[in-house]
Design a protein that fits this description.
About 30% of the residues lie in helices and about 40% in strands. The relative contact order is 0.22.
């Protein structure tokens, strides 16, 4: 099973996170299938690769709770509903 989850990067006390598609059995810094975005909680910046995220969601990937909240704040699901309608 594939999940969309966060992968920690950066240095001590200055973490940034990549949003990656990764196998459930892999560890947090394990090998990912594809990088689909990043999130910087300090600067509150988000960059998303929307076509890649849509591809993995259509294939059955499940976002973790944190990634789901990040996507919701970026209004990702509103755009998705518009394209499906």
């Amino acid at each position: 099973m594939v999940k969309l989850r966060l992968k920690r990067c950066g240095r001590k006390q200055r973490a940034i996170y990549r949003i990656v598609a990764i196998d459930v059995r892999s560890r947090r810094e394990g090998r990912d299938l594809q990088k689909v975005g990043f999130y910087d909680p300090i600067k509150n910046q988000t960059c998303l690769n929307v076509p890649a995220i849509l591809y993995f969601l259509e294939k059955g990937a499940q976002p973790t709770r944190t990634v789901y909240d990040i996507l919701r704040k970026a209004e990702f699901f509103k755009d998705k509903e518009r394209t499906l309608s």
